[in-house]
Design brief:
By secondary structure, this protein is α/β, with parallel strands linked by helices. The protein folds into 2 domains: about 170 residues, Rossmann fold, CATH 3.40.50.10490; about 160 residues, 3-Layer(aba) Sandwich (Rossmann fold), CATH 3.40.50. Helix content is about 45%, strand content about 15%. The protein is built from 13 helices and 9 strands. The strands form 2 sheets. Strands 2-1-3-4-5 form a 5-stranded parallel β-sheet, sandwiched between helices. Strands 7-6-8-9 form a 4-stranded parallel β-sheet. The longest helix has 22 residues. The radius of gyration is 21 Å and the shape is globular.
């Protein structure tokens, strides 16, 4: 396959965007606010609040891979350090040995047929766990949940799936956590997050030109770099992880995510490495390191100090730095602002390289070979 060049002029060519984005990933990302509202309403109508009748579980285990696994990370980040129980994500077929009848397992799969998630859900039932399942109606995951008298939240297939937006998978988990008293989750919280996503959709719309469009600007900053994306809190770190997943899936682009202070004990060493400075004699654009810092309003003062020093270290070594700031009062709002902008950036990056963000042949080929 020949090397692809990033052309920023593509991002302001409406005909090109329409023709290249074959399945409407930009429209799918723009629908994030609607997806939050629909997911909230569907979760309420599915009766997830009834999970609280059995009292608070000993632990919550979210079973899911890819965009489904991120939903579990988002739940843990929203509930925060103050959660009175552990919340962990399992990205495999097996549950940890300690998981048992006192625990709540949340199994998440957009198709309801993901091999790893279905296996974990079946194991949860065998161990006597309470089960909440989120997936497609009529799927194996729904069958497991119904047979075990668990709760099931149907997901309506929409354009782009979890590669476009994680909200239809993550919001039902948050509604359940709110019923369990683990987070403040009144209806106005979801509406506030939806409004933030609507604002991002307006500012990042395809008709908005690159010099005022934060999504297109982000794509241009990403292009021809090796992105290191750091969060300054657990919430921002989850957004960084989601951002990297979007770059991988939508733009077929490698990236690294981390969290301050941990990144200062390993990844920061790359500032002194071979990708830290551009070779002015190199043929072609090359690939150079760029640091993206996702900032949360609730930074520990010690983390803020490490962020400031890390940024200066990068700049002293010729590593360019971009900072993205979370906005909003509630953690869900702040997460929405970071995730929403990152989703746009990943799709615009794909289109700038001439890549249709929808088909993911390597993932499909891997799954096909595994099932042979």
């Amino acid at each position: 396959m020949p090397a692809l060049d990033f052309d920023p002029d593509r991002l302001d060519d409406q005909a090109y965007l329409d023709n290249t984005d074959s399945t409407g990933m930009l429209r799918a990302v723009a629908s994030s606010a609607a997806r939050v509202r629909v997911a909230h309403r569907t979760a309420v109508e599915s009766g997830v609040a009834a999970l609280a009748r059995d009292g608070r579980p000993r632990a919550i285990v979210v079973a899911g891979v890819g965009g489904s696994g991120i939903a579990g990370d988002m739940l843990a980040a929203i509930c925060g350090y103050g959660a009175p129980l552990p919340i962990m994500t399992v990205r495999s077929h097996r549950l940890p040995g300690w998981v048992g009848a006192a625990d709540l397992v949340m199994a998440v799969s957009p198709t309801g047929a993901g091999e790893e998630t279905v296996a974990a859900a079946a194991e949860a039932v065998r161990r006597g766990c309470n089960l909440l399942a989120v997936g497609r109606a009529g799927s194996p995951l729904e069958a497991i949940a119904r047979q075990a008298a668990g709760r099931f939240v149907p997901v309506t297939p929409q354009g782009g799936g979890p590669a476009a937006t994680p909200w239809e998978l993550a919001v039902p988990l948050m509604v359940a956590a709110s019923a369990l008293g683990l987070m403040r989750g009144e209806d106005d919280v979801y509406e506030a997050a939806a409004l933030r996503l609507e604002d991002i959709a307006h500012r990042c719309r395809p008709a908005s030109e690159s010099f005022i469009n934060p999504g297109k600007t982000l794509a241009m900053e990403l292009a021809d770099t090796v992105p290191m994306i750091w969060g300054t809190s657990p919430l921002a770190a989850v957004a960084a992880s989601r951002f990297v997943g979007g770059l991988n899936e939508n733009a077929r682009y490698p990236a690294i995510h981390g969290e301050i202070p941990e990144a200062g004990h390993n990844q920061v060493a790359a500032f002194d490495g071979p990708l830290a400075a551009k070779d002015i004699f190199a043929d072609g654009p090359g690939r150079t390191l760029r640091l993206f810092v996702l900032r949360d309003a609730e930074e520990d003062p010690r983390v803020a100090r490490r962020r400031e020093v890390s940024v200066r270290l990068a700049q002293d070594r010729g590593v360019p730095v971009s900072e993205l700031r979370a906005e909003g009062a509630h953690p869900l709002e702040r997460l929405a602002t970071l995730v929403g902008l990152g989703d746009y950036g990943s799709v615009y990056l794909a289109l700038g390289y001439g890549i249709d963000p929808a088909p993911m042949s390597a993932i499909g080929e891997l799954e096909a070979r595994v099932t042979q």
